# Entry
Amino acid sequence: MAPTHPELLWAQRSSETDPERNIIYLTINAPELDPSYTLSVDGNKLKFEGKSREVASKGTATTLDAKDYAFDLELFDEVEEARRGLTGKGVQVVLKKKKAQEEYWPRLLKEKGKNSRIQTDWSKWVDEDEQDEAAAADDDFGMGGGGMPDMGAMGGMGGMGGMGGMGGMPGMGGMGGGAGGMDFASMMGGGAGGAGGMDFAKMMEQIKAAGIGGGEEGLGGAEGGEDSSDDEGPPPLEEA
# Structure
């Protein structure tokens, strides 16, 4: 049986000054491809041979038969391979165009005509005049990079920065550095670790020691600066 021509998906970028942005994105759709495949790039010649593995689905009669894949193509112009990656769905390749120019290739292959096995990769394609807007998304191409910021570099949830200085709520003298030295971070159990670590009895004792609820700076302070030091504030809650 003759080898099967795998489906190819392609998109491109162009640049006269930046080789990293003067490229072809090529995806060879060959599911369960054996890593022993071969892919060669020589000028504008692109040759591929490979074989997929047979896969039987568990619990059903469905199977994926082994297939032989191959193609031998002449691209529109000369390229060189930049990088590639093998996934369960096939091979992803980035090819650098050797000729640096701002204009897009009019097609992937040298010869004009429709090839039913070659399709535009609309998930990566952008119009020629919109390339700058798409530059930030070009670094991944399914091969790593990008992703969420490193949470460790952000200092963890305990370092969210605002808890130490809530800045002078009326009558409280500042939750962070004021309130007679109340340690809000220790009160909260070391940061945003959840309410499970909060000791309410300790919190009330710290509030009492800080003078909140009594004294001139407390919530219940007397008007006009009158001495209300006899007011001990609310009693501490009993520990569960």
Q: What stands out?
A: Residues 149 and 155 are 11 Å apart (CA to CA). The longest helix spans residues 200-210.
